[in-house]
Input
Amino acid sequence: MTNASTPLQVAKFGGTSVADFTALSQCASIIVSDPTTRVVVVSAAAGVTNRLVELTQADLPNNERQRLLKEIAAIEYAIVDQLSGSEIRAAVDALLTQMANLVDRISHCTGDQLAPLADSLLSIGERCSSLLLTQVLKQLGVDAVNFDVTRVMRTDGHHGKATPDCASLTLNALEQLLPLTENQVVVTQGFIGADDEGNVTTLGRGGSDFSAALLAEALGASALAIWTDVNGIYSCDPRVVVDAKPIAELSFSEAAEMATFGSKILHPATILPAQRSQTPVFVGCTRAPEQGGTWIRNHCESRPKFRALSLRRGQTLLTAHSLNMLHSQGFLAELFAILARHRISVDLITTSEVSVALTLDQTGSDSSGRSLITEALLEELAPLCRVEVERDLSLLAVIGNHIAHTSGIGIRVLDAIGDSNIRMFCQGASAHNLCFLVASSEVEAITNRLHARLLN
Ligand code: ASP
Ligand code: MG
Output
């Protein structure tokens, strides 16, 4: 734990916030404006990780490979060109050479060798960003240091979606990172870590928020600021509902539901470490910090019945039918054991006498972007049950307080859904949400009706 008299904030900047030199300069001015910001976590520049993911395919045609490498180099060098000194160019040159070598090795490799190489390749985006932001800060006279997060972010060896080891992270961070913050601003990478043997791992797409929350927890930070391209969290995605309203303050429980149910602003895993360590989280816009943002904390003044709507597209509904389920024990345990072996986390579940329906989505998927439902999974499920898969569904969650204990909520929600078909309906497990699954083609209209009736 840090000394309460010397508060330390962790600030995380996302891909659009580090996309170019202008954006990096805005990050720097936010860092400079608050001297308690001592640890800065960065994502890869916008578009870089997507390209690196494409480059992890061993069978990519060579011209595609060359095009992607060039596009990444163009993004990074456009920033280098605005910086002074030959050292930074040499450092970026070295990283991009490493990138090209990894891509070359991937193109010749098969099987088990691929995953560790892919994670090393994916780490290049975050490594470039931290190097570049450090230099921008230095040029402004800030004593900044680029810190390799793999020295402290210990994870298991599950490439593409590694699980951090919080105890090791805390020990390492207090020993190796915290002392640096006394005199320097430490700039480090989100998304990446390393296993016990030092092999680079990644935490899954969008994992930088999670990294920042884990580091804030490990360092006993006084606050975590997530700087992104929107000025906080809204009552619904403003691209879907034009009169969605900004939310000044949210509880951890509400924020966790929102992140889980599709508000893309925070990676769903982010809230847990923050809540565990009671670290308040601020979400604001790098381009317009003066607009304020959303504070997420344990206790907040307002606890409205309806706070927000979250929408998650691209849902898959998997229904498992089995007559063996009738009056038997252990069917669900077996089903979930298989899903767990395939690293699939289940979201919603409903059951009947002989079937169980569950939703899956890509949020919990690994860094490679592969589909969750693989042939291998279906093969393993086949002896147990008959499986039906439905796609193109969307999940809509009503987020608020005391939902499970307030009468009349169901009728208001159902009334707004009107005569659209509800494919699944879940309520009861949490006081903070009620959610249902509908066809993606209908979800925007339903969301607008619900927002108008519950949140205006
Ligand atoms: N760069 C990684 C991604 O695009 C991690 C992150 O941005 O949070 O998924
Ligand atoms: Mg993100």
Notes: The pocket of magnesium ion (ligand 2) is lined by residues 14, 206, 209 (CB under 6 Å).
